[in-house]
Amino acid sequence: MILFKTAEQLKIHLNSIKKSTTKIGFVPTMGALHEGHLSLLAMSKEECDITICSIFVNPTQFNETKDFELYPVTMEHDILLLEKIKCDLLFLPSVTEIYPEGKPLLTQYPIGPIETLLEGSFRPGHFQGVCNVVHRLLKIVQPQVLFMGQKDYQQCMVIQKLLEITHLNTTIKLNIGATLRAASGLALSSRNLRLSEADKQKALAIAQSLAFIKQNINSSPIAALEEKVRFQLATLGFDPIDYVCVANAHTLEPITEWDHETPIIALIAAFLNGIRLIDNISLN
Questions:
Q1: CATH number for the 190-279 domain, one of 3.30.1300.10, 3.90.1300.10, 2.60.60.30, 3.40.50.2000?
Q2: Which of 151, 226, 254, 267 is the most buried (most CB within 10 A)?
Q3: Radius of gyration over alpha carbons of the chain, in Å?
Q4: What is the CATH number of domain 2-177?
Q5: Does residue 250 have an active-site annotation?
Q6: Per-residue pLDDT tens for 61-70?
Q7: pLDDT band per the 50, 70, 90 thresholds, residue 104
Q8: Which of 37, 126, 135, 250 is catalytic?
């Protein structure tokens, strides 16, 4: 694996090895790598000729400075994992490399109503930060395939919209990998590193709540299911609970009634001892 810290070095290398038929796969991450990230890299290695991983903790997508400062950094471990799976290239840029004009001078992307729903409602500006960093990384790496995970379902929808409005969807395909879970059922996440073992057991309640909604979606009113789950999570110590929501899987608009045909998804975001956890499950 070859490591690059500047866009210029990476571009020079890619230009020296690329042919017209070379397919580049790209997995952007914020580090603290786990099996979910590795599954995306495996998808890329299977489909593409060259696999590039980036590690960059993007400051513009954090709503709170404390959250940014506490985000887990495990760089040595990450590099060892990438070397073990034979990732081809690692891009490890600095903040000034990604934002040479400064963080305040961000592009505003017209991504539409999805920016104000669910995550967008509770994390204003978050998706603009995501769009800025992903667009800049895509212009540097210039991949043919972008790999992201379904656990960040709304983020995947935002990036698909970004590809459309920047017309990058004509050259870049977005591949979404399934959410990977621990044997217990807990969705894998870098933030799990901040959970104690006791809290990891408590955090299972989110996946269990999603399973409960799926099991009962045909027999109970949606609002009643959402309210019951909120109550159960609150009883277990989740606070605050940002949302428990059944939504249209294509638009993420919350629904109160289901026609049993429209694709729908259940999503949860809640805090456990100050750590924000998200998960989702398809209900079809």
A1: 3.30.1300.10
A2: 267
A3: 19
A4: 3.40.50.620
A5: no
A6: 998 888 999 9
A7: low
A8: 37
